Amino acid sequence: MSDAPAPIGILGGTFDPVHHGHLRLALEVREALALSEVRLLPSAQTNLRAGAHASAAQRLAMLQAALGAGYAGLAVDGREIARGGVSYTIDTLLELRAEAPARPLCFIVGMDAWNALPRWHRWQELLDYTHLVVASRPGAELLRHPAFEHAWAPAPAALLARPAGLVHVCPIPLLPISSTDIRARIAGRRSIDGLVPPAVAALIARDGLYRAA
Ligand code: ATP
């Protein structure tokens, strides 16, 4: 028996708002890799896209409401919002690594995020601190970043045997839901039922979020 700390997954994002696509993604990867938990980690600001629509506090509150008591194995990690400023994943990974030097960390990225990885701050250092788990539609073609070519790990078990350094592609069925589409529906006064947990829909309605196009 190894006494290494239990492996965890990290799903970073804007979560503007969180939706069932995010939750299913986190749950599917948790199950596929036998992770003890997946933490949903909202960014404060990102330098890669236009500003968020809801405030950081509102996005965090929606995530907390989404998880409620209903999702065993998922948690919210508010450290980037607490830190403030522009959120760089590398800074967050440095913090997580300092907290648990031997813990296998699996940073989860969707296909779009994986393909855009070379735009991330210090992206070539990411594997020094974490594994990368790329969630992709079965059969989808992924970019192969030459800098990470050495790191491909076909078997998920390899990720649990060391703290960082591998790239694993996890083929999972992805729900066709995006925050962009949800915001457009709200601005168009259309229903978002079934796309977000009811507690999130209630917060959006209470605070009148996303009503301006
Ligand atoms: P937006 O539409 O505003 O770009 P989004 O719905 O893509 O937002 P993000 O918060 O940017 O949500 O996404 C966080 C992470 O979740 C990213 O890695 C993204 O690829 C992934 N993701 C988002 N939607 C889905 C989905 N429906 N299925 C699987 N992964 C998703």
Which secondary structure elements does this structure contain, and how are they paired or packed?
Elements: E1 8-13, H1 20-33, E2 37-42, H2 56-67, E3 74-76, H3 79-83, H4 89-99, E4 105-110, H5 111-115, H6 126-129, E5 131-136, H7 157-160, E6 167-171, H8 179-187, H9 198-207
Parallel strand pairs: 1-2, 1-4, 2-3, 4-5, 5-6
Helix pairs in contact: 2-9
Adenosine-5'-triphosphate binds at residues 13-16, 21-22, 25, 109-110, 112-113, 135, 174-175, 177-180.
How would you sum up this structure, described in words?
With 213 residues, the chain is an alpha/beta fold. It has a single domain (8-176), classed as Rossmann fold (3-Layer(aba) Sandwich). Helices cover 35% and strands 15% of the residues. The protein has 9 helices and 6 strands, in the order E-H-E-H-E-H-H-E-H-H-E-H-E-H-H. The protein has a 6-stranded parallel beta sheet. Helix 7 links the parallel strand 5 and strand 6. Helix 2 packs antiparallel against helix 9 (198-207). The longest helix has 14 residues, at 20-33. It is globular. Residues 13-16, 21-22, 25, 109-110, 112-113, 135, 174-175, 177-180 line the site of adenosine-5'-triphosphate.
